[in-house]
């Protein structure tokens, strides 16, 4: 059962200040409403993983790591590799993260990141088949939220795409009935570079890339993932509240525009490929 | 893939004979369960979904309650026999996400500050699934809330829109959901001009999303009328009885 979340209390003073500033198109950390925080990307942070990236979006810190293995394909997709995204809201990152089974927030986060990667066809899963119906590559993308200062979705998409972009795949050979790992590696091909853009709504105003206090004070958030060709591959409203259709259409425009800029910054360390 | 899936016939009709902006046949009945404070049943195409509301009632354990308003608990669940392959009755990751998305879609409709420290339970049970269950479930859940006499800011109806074989269509069925290019569930309240649920997966250009969104608005407005009719039917019957 999904229960109304108990948000940490944020003082009336801070809430008023956020709204007062926003009325003048300003934000508590000095940004303008449509400005992202600084992004830093460290590729190959975890050597034991076949691909990894540590992404800092302001004070939000997400480590994404890709583990590659082989598995039996799903019955309905015998010729396709397996992609699984999992998010851990590590308790050391925030007092609101608790140990235990995955919360609905973490499930919703990983499912959104999964959709952003899968639907954008960033990974050609049909190229990850070794023996049809028997043996395919499995890609586990594990997201580790290490510090939480708002906007986990955008940071997680950036971290996942960066990690997949530097993933080296062990080569397997078929020997009779068995599939054997070799010492050779090849680079996983990244077909697209999607970015997610998250907006937090406070009354009739909105800001992109909300920091934690903006997220707590907001009525709801809206996330949109844009592919390199400016088409959309995922949208999700999170939290209560209502948004007018006109506002959604306005944000579609903004996302295409802001997405270009964000993509250049977020994936500047990845070489080659498109986008 | 063996045989090719036919999503449009040669005369441009959809797999079930509908035109692009046509809804499936919808049947709604309000007040179908005896124990729940409010309930509703919806059939949309081959979807068969029950929704029930219990509460407002004391929120227990106490620490879950809020001092200034009531909280909502929502469960979206699919029966094991609702799909072609048996679905495990344990909640899947999908059902956990949808329970949250539906709670978020219902919460802005309820006048929660009227019932501080209480809880309203909303159960959505999918008996037969045929694509667009979260939307049909929401349409029924809103009516169950109204049937329970809980003050609402307005009704909301939900409908999936999407892209199938290059065309923007309304109210995707199971086949179109599986083999189409994009699926976008939308819940809309026409009186407050507010979208309370919005998701999308698949690929659509900005223009296509816009077109789909306006189709969704028109479709949910039609469904809103059906909701009003269903409520009227429910309460006019009651008046005759007393």
Question: What is the structure about, briefly put?
Answer:
By secondary structure, chain A is an alpha+beta fold. Chain A is built from five helices and 13 strands.
What's the layout of helices and strands?
The complex is a heterodimer of chains A (275) and B (242).
Chain A: E1 2-3, H1 12-23, E2 39-43, E3 51-57, E4 60-71, E5 82-89, H2 104-119, E6 129-131, E7 135-147, H3 152-165, E8 168-175, E9 178-187, E10 195-202, E11 205-208, H4 212-217, E12 220-226, E13 232-238, H5 245-266
Parallel strand pairs in A: 5-7
Antiparallel strand pairs in A: 2-3, 3-4, 4-7, 6-7, 8-9, 10-11, 10-12, 12-13
Helix pairs in contact in A: 2-3
Chain B: E1 26-30, E2 38-44, E3 47-58, E4 71-78, H1 93-106, E5 118-128, H2 133-147, E6 157-164, E7 167-170, H3 174-179, E8 182-189, E9 194-204, H4 206-241
Parallel strand pairs in B: 4-5
Antiparallel strand pairs in B: 1-2, 2-3, 3-5, 6-7, 6-8, 8-9
Throw out a few tags for this protein.
heterodimer; A: 275 residues; alpha+beta; Ribosomal Protein S5, domain 2; six-stranded mixed beta sheet; four-stranded antiparallel beta sheet; 13 strands; elongated; B: 242 residues; five-stranded mixed beta sheet; 4 helices; 9 strands; globular
How would you portray this structure in words?
Helices cover 25% and strands 34% of the residues of chain A. Chain A has one domain: Ribosomal Protein S5, domain 2. Chain A has five helices and 13 strands. The termini of chain A are far apart. Chain A is α+β, with helices and mostly antiparallel strands and 275 residues long. The radius of gyration of chain A is 20 Å and the shape is elongated. In chain A, strands 2, 3, 4, 5, 6 and 7 form a six-stranded mixed sheet that branches. A four-stranded antiparallel sheet of chain A has the order 11-10-12-13. In chain A, strand 6 and strand 7 form a beta hairpin. In chain B, the strands form two sheets. Chain B has a five-stranded mixed sheet with strand order 1-2-3-5-4. The mean pLDDT of chain B is 95. Chain B has four helices and nine strands; from the N terminus they run E-E-E-E-H-E-H-E-E-H-E-E-H. The termini of chain B are far apart. In chain B, a hairpin with a 2-residue loop joins strand 6 and strand 7. Chain B has a single domain, classed as Ribosomal Protein S5, domain 2. With 242 residues, chain B is α+β, with helices and mostly antiparallel strands. The relative contact order of chain B is 0.17. At the A-B interface, strand 1, helix 2, strand 13 and helix 5 of A face strand 4, helix 1, strand 8, strand 9 and helix 4 of B.
